[in-house]
What we know:
The chain is an alpha+beta fold. It is about 55% helix and about 15% strand.
Amino acid sequence: MKKNVQAGLLVSIVIKFALFVSVAGVFPNAARAHEIPTDVVIQSILKPQAQQLEFLVRVPLDAMRDVNFPESGPGYLVISEADETLRDAATIWIAQEVSLYADDSLLSDWTIEAVRLSLPSDQSFSSYALARRHIQQPRLPDGADLYRDQAMLDVLIRYPIQSAAAEFSIAPRFARLGLQTTTVLRFEPVDSVARVFQFSGDPGVVRLDPRWHHAFFRFVIYGVEHILDGIDHLLFVICLLIPFRKLRPLIAIITSFTAAHSLTLIASAFGMVPNFLWFPPLIETLIAASIVYMAFENIVGSQWQKRWIIAFAFGLVHGFGFSFALSETLQFAGSHLLTSLLAFNLGVELGQLLIILLAVPILNFVFKNLIAERMGTILLSAVLAHSGWHWMSDRALQLSAYSFQFPALNYAFFASLTRWLMLFVIVGSVLWLLLLAYNRYLADDGPAKL
């Protein structure tokens, strides 16, 4: 009897599984109706006019979960019956997830003027005029045989405003549309050229035409966050100061490192960087190598009167690393590029200062009360060298996947070479000035020599 019951349960499970597979095969959309899409790209255009602000958005329809769109047959959308549902989806997933501001005042009185389903091959969002004309065209016919996971939802939202010359800000909250979301925004102000922004996830409030002080404070915060989040930069700074924690060595070493990475950071922002795919992974590999080198130098012994030169050399490398992180956020600088660069660099220095203020007292306490300084320096540097070695190995392996070819001897090559020669002259001049200053500063401990 017991065996018959178990056999019956087994048969029931098999039948249910077979039915599920059959339904999933015949109706693929039904089997994954509530799945969260992996990568979602949202296209949008923001255009202020005399008394209204128009916001055009294109979102993959499949990203709007828990909305039952009318379907027929094997899952084709019944487009003629979908207008009300599309407006509901646009309200819940788009209009209510965006905050727009004019002169720091929230624009809360919005209206959805039009919604339209589009094919994924449609290219109308390449410009405001095309997108606006397209979204107001008659809807697609039911015979388009369009699945939910193929359709794009285009939405036109209007906001009443007092002036098209106001300072506009936006806070899109589209992160819940997918596991990874990218929002591309084209802002077309009335009196200047269009600007294109690209956000990952929810970027917070973004000023589309920031004043200099807005850009300054935003990039100071970026700089502090980057140095504290960048574990490789943080460990390098700790390597620099482990054996030299008194005021004079710290001033000399950190000043050299700061001057060097400031040079390459600013130079990168103005295009003085090799335009090769292998350059970023090369820099990341060298950053890891700088930790290994500095840790081994701590182990074998080093003189702080000469360490500033090594700090300067590796600072040039770390500056390129900072520039890679900065390249994605410079879009928020508006017309204040130099201000934002200086602010970012100031943020990096504030982050470094915070690291020093925390690390030096901790190291002094450890070496005074827990372990002899020389032994502690060796052990701690060995741990840092071990971490840096693993990073260097992994990054070198990634670097080896790139092909290295000598560039063609054309106009672009010689223009790039000229920029690099300019950077080389600037770096050499700064190094010479530092040498003159340190020869005087280090006079009591012997001259600094290259």
